[in-house]
C-alpha cells in the first residue's frame, strides 16, 4: 500500500492549478510580450537584448526550430490562425508559398513599408510582394555564394592554401571536381573533398538561370538542362569518392565540422555562422573563404513576416522593421556573417573592408558584396523549399549506393511533379 | 413516517441514478475526445480535405482509398511496417521467455534483476531513440566502433533497408522485452513443480521441459503478449522519425527505407496537411493491425502441450 | 479484441503450497547470474551512456575510442541546457500535464470502476463492453479529427490540448473495476447500505480506502505514460510551449550544433521517471506481474 503516490499526485495537481492560473499574454509589469520564430542562426541574440534595453515596455522571446519544421508548423498555424509567433521568419524557398495567402499576414505597405522600400535590393522587395501588391515580409539577408575551405587540409594534400590561388583552382564546377580528385588522392583516410552532394548541388542550382519553376509557377526541373548537368557532375564527384556523404543541417553534418571530415563546403553567407558554431573555437584560423566556382548565385536568405492573428501586431511590425534596418543588418554581417539585403551597405567601407578573424581574416566584406552585386536572382516557385528537400534525398540515395544517378533523378522528378 | 419515506426515496434514487453519475465523467470525456474523433476519422477519410487549402472540404467518397491502393509509397510503408513488426515482435517474445526462465530460478537480489529488466520500459521513447541514434552513428557511433574491433565496422545503419530495420528493432526490443518477461514470470511461478518432477523422471532435460511444459502452459500469456506487442509495433512512429533527423525526417530515410505506415500518416497529415488522405491511411492501418493481431493470435494459439 | 484486456490470470494449480514449489525451483548457478548481469548491463547501458556524455565535454560524444566513464562537467552541461534552451518550461509543462492527468485518471477510474464492480444499473454490461472494446484501438486513428477539434477550440499549441484527452483512460476504469471485484466483499457494502449510507459515502469511506494499493499502481503507470507520451504532443504543441518529449524532438532535429546538450536534456528529462522508478520500482514490478498492463 503506497498512499505516498497519491499524495505526490495531489501535490502535482495543486501545482498544476496554481500554474495554469498565471498564464496570460502580457508579462508582469504591463510589458508587451513579443515572440519571434526563427530557424538556424539569424545572429539576433545581441540585437534583441539591445532592443529590449531601449524598449523597456517590450519583452521578447525567440525560439528556433529546424528549417523544415519551422516552415511546416508556420503553414499550419496560419491555416488555423493560432500558435504563430508575433514575428515569423520565412526563407526564400518558402516565401512564394506564403505570399500566395497574403491575407494571413500584415501588409507592411499599410504600416509605412512604402517609405522603407528603397532600403532593400529591388528584387528582394519584390520576392515577398504578393500578386495583389501586398508586402508580407521585410528582407533580412541574402544567400550570396562562396566556398569555405580548410587551409590545413588543402595544404597537406599539396594544394595551395592562399585564397586567390585556391579560387584559381576552380573557375568552374568541373574544375572544382577535378581539384577534388587531386586532393582525394593524397587526403588522409576519413577526409573527403566536400561535405555532401546535396550541399554542392544546391549551390549549382542557385546559380542556374531557371530553377525548379518557371515564372508561371510550373515545375520545370525535369527539363532543366542546367540543373541536370549539375546533378550529373555532382553524381560523378560522389562516385569518385569525393563526398563525406553527410546531409547538411543534420547532427552528423555538425559533427563533421568538428571532426574535420571534409575540406570544403558550399558557403552561402549564412553558412559562416554555422561553421563557426559547429567547428568551434579550436578550429579558428583553419577555415578560410574564397569565391565560388561559376560565380554569382544565391542560396537562401530570409524575410521577417508578421502574421495577422498576432495580438501585438503594431509592436511586432516595429521590431521587424528595426531588425531589418541597415544598421542592424550591418551588425549581423559582422557578428554572424549574414549578407545584408541592403544595397547601400555594399559600398559602405565598414562592410566592404570587413575581415573575419575566425576565417583567417578572410576579406568577406569584399568577397560577399562582390557576390551580391553580381547576383542575378532566380525565380523561386511556391514549393521550392520542399523540392530542395526532395533533391537532397535523391542525392543521398546515390551517396548511399541505393540507386544510380539516372534512376534517382527520375524518381525525384516523378516525386515533385506528382 | 415522513422521514422514513424520504430516506427510502433517496435510497431508490441513489441506487437507480447515482451509478450513472459515477461513470458519467469517463463517458463524457471519452465520448468527446476519444470516441468522436475515432468515428470522425472515417468521415474525414471520405473527403478531399487539406488544412492549408482555405476552400471547404468536399466529399469524394472512396477516392482517397483508391489513390492509396495505387500509391507505391503507401505499400512501401506497409511493407516496412510488417517487416518491423516481425523483427520486433518475435524476438521480443522469445527473449522475454528466456529472461523469464532465468528470473524464475532461485536468484538472490531478485528485485534488483526484476527492476533491471523493466528499466528500459520506463524511459521515454524520444530520449531513447536520440541515444540509440547516436550509438548507431556511421562514423563515430559506439556500435560501429565495437563491430570494428571484430573487423566489421563502418556500417551506415540509416542507409540500408535491412540495417535500418535492425537498428529500429533493437530499440523496440530493448524497450519492451523486460515488460513481457515479467508477465511470463508471473505465470511461470504458478506452474506446479510436480509437472517438472514427473518430466525429470521421464528423462526430459531442461530444454525439453521448457518447450514441452513451460511454453504450452504459458500459452494464454504468450497470446496476450503477442497481441499487445502487435498493436504497439504496428504503429511505430517516434523511432523512425527521430532516427533520421533533418529536413526529411518524415520520409524515413532517403528512399523511405524505414518509413512506417504511422510515419507516412504523419508525413501526409502533418507535413503536407492532407487530412483526408492521412485519415484514409489511419483507417487502413487500423484494419491491418486487427488482421495482423488476428494472425498473431492464430499462430500463438497453435502452441500445444505435447 | 477483448483478449487485449482480459489479461489471462496465471495458471492456478491445485498442487503443493507456494512454499513447497519455491523450494523445488531450480537454484540459479553461475551461468544464470552471468546471463542476468549481462541483461542488466544491457538494460542500463544506453541510459548510463547518456549520463556519461552529459557529464563530459562536447568532445566526448564523438571521440574514438568512445568515452565510457563519467566526467566532471555534468552541472556545467545542465546549466547550459537551461541557459540556451527553454527546457525549464518543458519540464514544468510535463509536470503539469503528467500530474493533472495522473490525478484525474486515478479519480475518475476509481469512481467508474467502483460503479462497474459494485453497483447495479441498467446498461452496465454494454457500457463495460464499450470500454473494453475501445481500449484496443490505437490513438493514432483519431488524431486528425482531434487536431481539428483542438484548432477549432483554439487550444492548439496549449497544454490543455494534451491534458484534456488524457483525463480518462479505458484501461484505468477496467483495471480499477477488476480490483474492486476482488478486493471488496459485497457483504461489506450491503451492511453499509442497511445503515442508510448513500453510495457516495460508501465510495468515500469503504471503497476508496480499500482501493489505495491499486490506485497507487495505476497512478504510477499513468504518470510515466503521460510523461513519455510523444505523438499527440508532437502534433498539437508548438516548439515554444513544449513538453519534455517534444522539446527533445526539436532539439534533436538538427539545428542544434551541440549534441552533448541534446543528450544532457535527454538525461534531465529521464530523471523524473527514473526517480519514480527507483522509489516505487517494487510496486511497478508487482503491478506488471499482477496485470497492470499499459496499452
From TrEMBL, chain A:
UniProt xrefs under PROSITE patterns: PROKAR_LIPOPROTEIN
Pfam families: SBP_bac_8
Cleavable signal peptide: 1-20
Coiled coil (residue ranges): none
Keywords, sorted A to Z: Signal
InterPro entries, sorted: Bact_solute-bd_prot1, SBP
Protein name: Cellobiose transport system substrate-binding protein
Species: Lentzea waywayandensis
TrEMBL record, chain B:
Keyword Cell wall biogenesis/degradation: no
GO cellular component terms, semicolon-separated: plasma membrane
InterPro entries registered for this protein in UniProt: ABC_transporter_permease (IPR051393), MetI-like (IPR000515), MetI-like_sf (IPR035906)
TM helices/strands, residue ranges: 20-43, 82-103, 115-137, 157-177, 217-238, 275-299
An example Gene Ontology biological process: transmembrane transport
Pfam families membership: BPD_transp_1
Keyword field contains Membrane: yes
Source superkingdom: Bacteria
Location of the ABC transmembrane type-1 domain: 78-296
Membrane topology per record: Multi-pass membrane protein
Subcellular location(s) per record: Cell membrane
Keywords: Cell membrane, Membrane, Transmembrane, Transmembrane helix, Transport
Family, per entry: Belongs to the binding-protein-dependent transport system permease family.
Name this protein carries in UniProt: Cellobiose ABC transporter membrane protein
UniProt lineage: Bacteria, Bacillati, Actinomycetota, Actinomycetes, Pseudonocardiales
Automatic annotation (TrEMBL), chain C:
Pfam families for this protein: BPD_transp_1
Cited PROSITE patterns: ABC_TM1
Domain ABC transmembrane type-1 per the UniProt entry, residue ranges: 91-280
An example Gene Ontology biological process: transmembrane transport
Subcellular location: Cell membrane
UniProt KW keywords: Cell membrane, Membrane, Transmembrane, Transmembrane helix, Transport
Record's GO cellular component terms: plasma membrane
Bilayer topology term: Multi-pass membrane protein
InterPro entries: MetI-like (IPR000515), MetI-like_sf (IPR035906)
Membrane-spanning intervals of the chain: 31-49, 87-114, 126-147, 153-175, 202-227, 259-280
Annotated family: Belongs to the binding-protein-dependent transport system permease family.
Name by which UniProt lists this protein: Cellobiose transport system permease protein
Amino acid at each position: 500500500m503506497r498512499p505516498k503516490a497519491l499524495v505526490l499526485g495531489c501535490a502535482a495537481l495543486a501545482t498544476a492549478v496554481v500554474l495554469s492560473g498565471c498564464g496570460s499574454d502580457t508579462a508582469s509589469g504591463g510589458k508587451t510580450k513579443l515572440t519571434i520564430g526563427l530557424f538556424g542562426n539569424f545572429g539576433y541574440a545581441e540585437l534583441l537584448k539591445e532592443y529590449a534595453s531601449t524598449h523597456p515596455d517590450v519583452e521578447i522571446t525567440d525560439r528556433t526550430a529546424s528549417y523544415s519544421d519551422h516552415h511546416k508548423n508556420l503553414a499550419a498555424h496560419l491555416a488555423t490562425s493560432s500558435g504563430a509567433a508575433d514575428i515569423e521568419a520565412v526563407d526564400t524557398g518558402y516565401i512564394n508559398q506564403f505570399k500566395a495567402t497574403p491575407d494571413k499576414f500584415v501588409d507592411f505597405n499599410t504600416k509605412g513599408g512604402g517609405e522603407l522600400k528603397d532600403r532593400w535590393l529591388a528584387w528582394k522587395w519584390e520576392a515577398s510582394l504578393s500578386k495583389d501588391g501586398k508586402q508580407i515580409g521585410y528582407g533580412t539577408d541574402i544567400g550570396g555564394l562562396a566556398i569555405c575551405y580548410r587551409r590545413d587540409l588543402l595544404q597537406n594534400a599539396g594544394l595551395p592554401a592562399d585564397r586567390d590561388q585556391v579560387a584559381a583552382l576552380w573557375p568552374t564546377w568541373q574544375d572544382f571536381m577535378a581539384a577534388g580528385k587531386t586532393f582525394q588522392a593524397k587526403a588522409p583516410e576519413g577526409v573527403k573533398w566536400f561535405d555532401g552532394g546535396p550541399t554542392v548541388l544546391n549551390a549549382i542550382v542557385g546559380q542556374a538561370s531557371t530553377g525548379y519553376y518557371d515564372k508561371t509557377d510550373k515545375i520545370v526541373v525535369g527539363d532543366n538542362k542546367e540543373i541536370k548537368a549539375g546533378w550529373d557532375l555532382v553524381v560523378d564527384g560522389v562516385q569518385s569518392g569525393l563526398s563525406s556523404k553527410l546531409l547538411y543541417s543534420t547532427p552528423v553534418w555538425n559533427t563533421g565540422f568538428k571532426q574535420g571530415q571534409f575540406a570544403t563546403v558550399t558557403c552561402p553567407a549564412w553558412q559562416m555562422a554555422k561553421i563557426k558554431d559547429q567547428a568551434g573555437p579550436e578550429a579558428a584560423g583553419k577555415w578560410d573563404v574564397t569565391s565560388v566556382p561559376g560565380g554569382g548565385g544565391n542560396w537562401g536568405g530570409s524575410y521577417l513576416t508578421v502574421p495577422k492573428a498576432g495580438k501585438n501586431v503594431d509592436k511586432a511590425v516595429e521590431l521587424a522593421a528595426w531588425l531589418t534596418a541597415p544598421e542592424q543588418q550591418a551588425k549581423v554581417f559582422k557578428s554572424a556573417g549574414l549578407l545584408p539585403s541592403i544595397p547601400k551597405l555594399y559600398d559602405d567601407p565598414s562592410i566592404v573592408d570587413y575581415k573575419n578573424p575566425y576565417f583567417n581574416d578572410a576579406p568577406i566584406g569584399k568577397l560577399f558584396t562582390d557576390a551580391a552585386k553580381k547576383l542575378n536572382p532566380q525565380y523561386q516557385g511556391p514549393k521550392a523549399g520542399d523540392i530542395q528537400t526532395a533533391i537532397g534525398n535523391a542525392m543521398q540515395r546515390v551517396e548511399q549506393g541505393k540507386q544510380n544517378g539516372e534512376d534517382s533523378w527520375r524518381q525525384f522528378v516523378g516525386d515533385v511533379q506528382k | 413516517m415522513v422521514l422514513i419515506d424520504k430516506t427510502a426515496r433517496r435510497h431508490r434514487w441513489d441506487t437507480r441514478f447515482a451509478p450513472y453519475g459515477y461513470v458519467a465523467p469517463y463517458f463524457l470525456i471519452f465520448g468527446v475526445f476519444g470516441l468522436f474523433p475515432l468515428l470522425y476519422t472515417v468521415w474525414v477519410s471520405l473527403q478531399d480535405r487539406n488544412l492549408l487549402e482555405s476552400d471547404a472540404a468536399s466529399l469524394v467518397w472512396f477516392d482517397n482509398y483508391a489513390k492509396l491502393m495505387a500509391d507505391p509509397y503507401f505499400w512501401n510503408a506497409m511493407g516496412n511496417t510488417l517487416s518491423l513488426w516481425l523483427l520486433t515482435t518475435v524476438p521480443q517474445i522469445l527473449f522475454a521467455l528466456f529472461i523469464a526462465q532465468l528470473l524464475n530460478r532461485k536468484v538472490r537480489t531478485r528485485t534488483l534483476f526484476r527492476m533491471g529488466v523493466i528499466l528500459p520500459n520506463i524511459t521515454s521513447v524520444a530520449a531513447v531513440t536520440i541515444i540509440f541514434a547516436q550509438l548507431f552513428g556511421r562514423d563515430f557511433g559506439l556500435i560501429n566502433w565495437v563491430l570494428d574491433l571484430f573487423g566489421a565496422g563502418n556500417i551506415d545503419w540509416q542507409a540500408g533497408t535491412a540495417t535500418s530495420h535492425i537498428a529500429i528493432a533493437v530499440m523496440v526490443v530493448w524497450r519492451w522485452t523486460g515488460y513481457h518477461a515479467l508477465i511470463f514470470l508471473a505465470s511461470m511461478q504458478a506452474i506446479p513443480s510436480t509437472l517438472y518432477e514427473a518430466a525429470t523422471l521421464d528423462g526430459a532435460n531442461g530444454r525439453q521441459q521448457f518447450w514441452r511444459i513451460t511454453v504450452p502452459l504459458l500459452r494464454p500469456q504468450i497470446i496476450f503478449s503477442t497481441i499487445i506487442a502487435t498493436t504497439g509495433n504496428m504503429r511505430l512512429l517516434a523511432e523512425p522519425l527521430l532516427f533520421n533527423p533533418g529536413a526529411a525526417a518524415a520520409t524515413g530515410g532517403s528512399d523511405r527505407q524505414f518509413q512506417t505506415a504511422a510515419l507516412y500518416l504523419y508525413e501526409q497529415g502533418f507535413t503536407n496537411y492532407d487530412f483526408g488522405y492521412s485519415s484514409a491511411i489511419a483507417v487502413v492501418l487500423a484494419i491491418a493491425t486487427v488482421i495482423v493481431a488476428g494472425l498473431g493470435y492464430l499462430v500463438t494459439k497453435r502452441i500445444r502441450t505435447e | 479484441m477483448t483478449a487485449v484486456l482480459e489479461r489471462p490470470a496465471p495458471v492456478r494449480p491445485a498442487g503443493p503450497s507456494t512454499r513447497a514449489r519455491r523450494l523445488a525451483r531450480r537454484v540459479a548457478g553461475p551461468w544464470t547470474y552471468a546471463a542476468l548481469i549481462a541483461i542488466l548491463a544491457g538494460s542500463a547501458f544506453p541510459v548510463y551512456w547518456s549520463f556519461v556524455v552529459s557529464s563530459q565535454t562536447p568532445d566526448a560524444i564523438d571521440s574514438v575510442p568512445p568515452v565510457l566513464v563519467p566526467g566532471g562537467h555534468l552541472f556545467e552541461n545542465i546549466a547550459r541546457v537551461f541557459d540556451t534552451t527553454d527546457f525549464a518550461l518543458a519540464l514544468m509543462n510535463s509536470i503539469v500535464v503528467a500530474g493533472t492527468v495522473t490525478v484525474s485518471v486515478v479519480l475518475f477510474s476509481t469512481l467508474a470502476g467502483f460503479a462497474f464492480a459494485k453497483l447495479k444499473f441498467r446498461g452496465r454490461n454494454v457500457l463495460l463492453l464499450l470500454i473494453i472494446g475501445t481500449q484496443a484501438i490505437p490513438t493514432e486513428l483519431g488524431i486528425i479529427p482531434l487536431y481539428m477539434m483542438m484548432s477549432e477550440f483554439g487550444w492548439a499549441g496549449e497544454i490543455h490540448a494534451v491534458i484534456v484527452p488524457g483525463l480518462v483512460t479505458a484501461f484505468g476504469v477496467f483495471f480499477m473495476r477488476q480490483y474492486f471485484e476482488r478486493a471488496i466483499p459485497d457483504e461489506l457494502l450491503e451492511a453499509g447500505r442497511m445503515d442508510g449510507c448513500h453510495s457516495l459515502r460508501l465510495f468515500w469511506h469503504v471503497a476508496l480506502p480499500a482501493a489505495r494499493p491499486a490506485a497507487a499502481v495505476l497512478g504510477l503507470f499513468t504518470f510515466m505514460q503521460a510523461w513519455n507520451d510523444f505523438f499527440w504532443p508532437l502534433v498539437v504543441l508548438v516548439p515554444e510551449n513544449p513538453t519534455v518529449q517534444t522539446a527533445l524532438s526539436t532539439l534533436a532535429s538538427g539545428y542544434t550544433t551541440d549534441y552533448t546538450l541534446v543528450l544532457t536534456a535527454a538525461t534531465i528529462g529521464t530523471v523524473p521517471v527514473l526517480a519514480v522508478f527507483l522509489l516505487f520500482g517494487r510496486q511497478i514490478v508487482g503491478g506488471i506481474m499482477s496485470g497492470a498492463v499499459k496499452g
